């Protein structure tokens, strides 16, 4: 279906961008690899040239272009080269993205600039440069790898700058879909679950891949969108839901470790199950179900109590000496209530109720997720990233507790 079509893909040297490129290459498409990695990176796989070799081997034609989307001249130069080489541009995929999952006070200005420059400004300028050529195509598409705009504050509070930058990409979909209606289709695509990429390895650490899907699921979903008529526009699409509608039944093929629990991706409340949410569905009038705040009267029994009993038994003077922090847990659900771990007072202690001294860190989560976290089934970092864990207080101490957890996991 995409034979002879020219796709301009930002960040296509690896990960999701490359997966979309390879899927289109199988049809015999022309791929412009607009990415900045020309020399091998010390830790990240692939360059624009190795990606070009894979695309050619898959049956496509490749044009590697050194493009840092922060530099408008590089974007314009690559667009001109693409038009000169392939005669036009039919599809733009805005995939290049920067991420820093840090709170407002912890996000360095250069990181804020990077995310705004790459995610919002880069998407806007690349779209602007490609649009005159896209308008000449028979079935032009712009596809942004960005989420539905969910105004639930939980998605803003832990990484405000990143959320603003990703929603900036989604706002480009919102505006351009209306502005170019009837001429160019403009849509957004976002994964339902975490996708295994080099970025995910950096965020989640070793072993995180078991809780992720392969990039293939996004490549298949992107292919479905890009082969639809240009009248299909202004949609915020979730990969799994679209593929179910297209008749896909076996999602194990996309799992890195079939049968293993998957991490839900950002910006999707658990109830979200819409394929193509139209922009009218978003805005100030949107109602959120909110986070569950009801808490069951705590009974010191069951899995939570057992977990604290083991923690108490496993504590050492060394843990207390190396951590020097008091942690309070506000748990909802079965066995919920207030619990604590004191790793500051000589000997250390853990149990039900408030700690004897003021807590340095207060963590709020469901009791079920707490048990998963303390038994190694849920990484604290991922629990925090996905909004399952809320932390108030000293973040450095919270990270120290995570270190101790890895030592305790064998006993829990």
TrEMBL record:
Gene Ontology CC entries for this record: mitochondrion; peroxisome
Keyword terms of this UniProt record: Mitochondrion, NADP, Oxidoreductase, Peroxisome
One GO MF term attached to the UniProt entry: oxidoreductase activity
Limits of the SCP2 domain: 316-405
Principal subcellular localization: mitochondrion
Keyword Oxidoreductase: yes
CDD domains documented for this protein: HSDL2_SDR_c (cd09762)
Protein name: Hydroxysteroid dehydrogenase-like protein 2
Family: Belongs to the short-chain dehydrogenases/reductases (SDR) family.
Localisation: Mitochondrion; Peroxisome
Superkingdom as given in the UniProt entry: Eukaryota
UniProt gene name: Hsdl2
